[in-house]
Every structure is written in C-alpha cells, then in structure tokens.
Amino acid sequence: MTSPPPRDAPGIAAASDPDYDTRPPFEGRLRGALARAIKPVAQRGLRMALGMVGYMTRGQAGTPPPLVPGDPRIRRILVVRVDLLGDTVLSTPAVRALRRGYPSARIDMLVQPAMTGVLRGDPDLADVIGYNPHIWRSPSAWFQPRTWIAGYAMLRRLRGKHFDLAISVSGDIGSILTRLTNAQRRVGYTGEAYRGFLTDPVPGARYRAHQHEVRYVLRLAEAAGGIAAPEDARPWLRVDAEARRQVTALLRQGRHQLDVPGPVITMHAGARNGQAKRWPPAHLAALADQLVEELGALVVLTGAPHEKPLADEVARLAHVPLLNLAGGTTIPQLVALLAESAVVVSGDSGPMHIACAVGARVVALHGPTDPDLSGPTAPDAIVLRHRLWCAPCYDASATAECRFGNPVCMKALAPRMVFAAVRRQLQRHERQEAAMPNQDEMYVAAAPHP
Q: Out of 281, 285, 319, 355, which residue is the most buried by the measure of CB atoms under 10 Å away?
C-alpha cells in the first residue's frame, strides 16, 4: 500500500482544490484585462455625471463651520458601512468615538443585511439598518420592480429619521447613501465621494496613507466631531447571552461525540474577498490532524453557507474527526463560538476580526494582503506571512486573486509553522486562564467609555 505524500509536500493543494492554483484560460485572462481597462474609464464617466448632479443639488454654498464634539444641533447620526463582515467590525471603534463626542445623540448604522447580527446588543447603537445597495450594480436589477420597491422603502426610512449627521465609510456608494439621507452634515473622504455629495469632505482616501483600517475610520469619526481614545485601536463586540448558551451546548455535544478533552481551536477556511487569501484545504487538514493527535483538541470548522464545500473538503482530507459547523451557525452564534475558542486560526477574514474583537487568541495567515492595513487588531495576535517579492499585492481594485494562478505566499505557510504558533497561543491562554477567576457567568462586553 502506497503511503500518502507528506502534508507539507508542494502541490498538495492542487489535488484537493484544482481552481486554487490553475492559471485562468486565455479567454478569462482577456476578459479580465478588458475589464481592468474599461473600469477606470467607466468610473471617470460616472464620477463626472454624478459630480454634476451633486454640484447642482449641493444646497448652501460655502464651507460650513467645523464639526465639534458636543454640538447640540447634532442629535441623530448615521454611520454608513455597507461592506463585508470584517469592515463592519473594524468600523465599531468609530462608533465609540462618535458616542464620546455626542453622548446624548442617537447613533444608527447602515450595513448589509447579513452583517446586522454582528452588531447585536451594541450599547452605542440605537438601530442597525440592513440594506444592500450593491444590487444596483447588476443591470438586470434596474428592470426588477422589487428592487425599486425595496430601494424606495429604504429611502423613506432613512429620510424619516431626519439625520443631522451622516458619515460615509463605504467609498463612492457610501457618499450616495449619505446624500440620499438629506442629512444636514455629510462627512467622508474626498477621494471616495462624488463631487457635491459631502458637506464636510476629508482630504484623502483609503490606502493613500499607510494606515490600518481602524485608523482610516477613526479619522473620519474625529472629523465628524468624535473623540478617539487609546482603546479604539481595537474593536470590541458584545457576545449575545443566548447565542453563547447555544454554542456551549454545541461544543459539549461535539466533545462527547468526538471524545476530545483538549482546548477548542476554531479554524476558518474561507475568505469572501478573494481566493488567494485562503490557506489550502490540505494544509488545514494537516494542522487539524496534528492538533487532535498531539493536543487532543476539539477542532471546529467555521464558514458561511457558501463556504461549506470548502470546510467539507478540509474535513474529508483530515484523518481525524472534526466538528464542522460551516453554514450551520448564525452571526451571533459565530461571535459566541469565537469567544469560546482558546485559539482561532484564519486568513485575513471577517471571522479573524471578530475573534480579535471578542478577546480570542488569534493566529492570522497573511499572503496577498498587508497586515499593516487589514491585519489583526489584538496586540497578542500572531501574524504568519512570507515576505515574497510579489506580496502583498492586494490593492482593493478587485478581489484578492493571484495574478500567477498560484498563491505561493499562502501555500508556503507550512502546517508545522502554524502548529507552533497555535501552541504558543495556547500557552498564553492557559496562563491567562490560571490567573483569572471563574468565568462561567461572564461574557465579553463592549469596552466601557471613559
């Protein structure tokens, strides 16, 4: 009987995930090149057209006085962040800064519908509004009545709240939404907004300065009258008590079924914003084998419903039983699961940022993305990456895909290297557990305000 190849062997990812490192066909490369050439031209045309609309409807001319903390005229605030899960989490420090600046104001946040659960119970938010404006990017959506009905209903809802201040943290589309609210003051980056759509434009744009995403949103909050504090370098999330009880029951059942007494180690295989950010399934499986065989760990796989096939592939390749919860948890349950985990292993993803925000020990795997811009915010997180000549390569103009069809920057992170980092984090976790009182009735809460 032929023994299987070593899990660190080159090319093992290709056998389990053929699309992971296969060069796109010529037609695909040609379409991509045309799209990259046409997109900037179309964007410039749209910017000119909407800029004219913004200029003609800008209202009162002139520069308004700077927004200052405690302005009694600012009673209702909207923060617009209609991006991915991690972006939503990384925007919560800006909400805290706004709460300090306007302690008596009502603050709402507009996010994509799937992201509302991650903000459940946030004491600084009065309402979390779910809407997906990206459906308008599809030409077919313009011909569907339900798109217009839903858009009109959202427009009425936003205008009915009579916001005094709206902050765009979602680029061009965020500037459109803030303009549609009819808020008296509208804040956003000049380089990410259509002309005339903002009343208080802030010079710059994302990635023009080498700064973390948290700092990017905090700068906008400060320009809007928010007050930042040192603890805002890291987001904090509240864990829903009912979701925690549900997750505790799932983990207890998993331990019983799999007969593993060791620590809970959660692994997230997916990455919504690009395939090149994923660690190979075979590597994840090899790590799971080592964690179970050497540490007796309860290894849990997470993922959104569309990532379940990826998690299933990891479970199939592993030689040990795993608790595969991919596609089977709500966002509040995912938050609770990550809070219950001794260590979380993930690429640059939303769950990685949630793990940092609930105090979990994190091992983050970075390849095409720069950890200085989007890396973990937990000060004790371990970031693993190889400094290749082509990495980091992600520039936010499209999803993170390897231009060579072979993301070596991620594949070269060997399972044994990640295992060593997990053991180091476990040692920190055990020392912390030994020094803390009984935590059975405690849960992670939002950081208190000074």
A: 355
The Cα 107–Cα 112 span in angstroms is 17
Topology of the domain covering 67-233? Rossmann fold (3.40.50)
In the chain, % of residues over pLDDT 90: 63
* 3-class DSSP state of 343: strand
Q: Render the burial of 230-254: b for 16+ CB within 10 Å, e for the rest.
A: eebebbbbbbbeebbebbeebbeeb
> Domain coordinates of the chain in residue numbers?
67-233, 238-435
Largest CA distance in the chain: 80
**What pLDDT, on the 0 to 100 scale, is given for residue 11?**
34
Q: What is the mean pLDDT of residues 50-68?
A: 67
Partner residues linked to 107 by β-bridges: 77
Query: For 7-17, what is each residue's pLDDT tens digit?
Result: 333 333 333 44
* Cα-based distances in Å from 293 to 261, 287, 298, 316: 11, 10, 10, 17
Give residue 276's pLDDT.
75
Q: How far apart are CA 76 and CA 214, in angstroms?
A: 23
Amino acid at the residue 56: M
Residue 148 CA to residue 241 CA, distance in Å, equals: 38
Tens of pLDDT, residues 344-358: 999 999 999 999 999
Q: Are strands 165-168 and 323-324 parallel, antiparallel or unpaired?
A: unpaired
Among residues 305, 298, 303, 279, which one has the least CA distance to residue 363? 279
Give 89's contacts (C-beta < 8 A, 6+ positions apart).
118, 235, 237, 350, 353, 354, 357
pLDDT for 270 equals 81
Structure token pair of residue 395? 């520039």
- CA dist 394 and 79 (Å) reads 26
Domain at 238-435, CATH from 3.10.20.340, 3.30.360.10, 3.40.50.2000, 2.60.40.10: 3.40.50.2000
> Which of 11-15, 74-78, 145-149, 222-226 has the least mean pLDDT?
11-15
Tokens 């009182």: give the residue: 437
Considering only CA atoms, which of 203, 204, 197, 217 is closest in space to residue 47?
A: 197
H helices of 259-405, where? 281-295, 308-317, 331-340, 350-357, 371-374
CA distances from 445 to 94, 116, 235, 285, 448 (A): 17, 17, 11, 33, 8
Residue 336: helix, strand or coil by DSSP? helix
Average pLDDT, stretch 54-70? 73
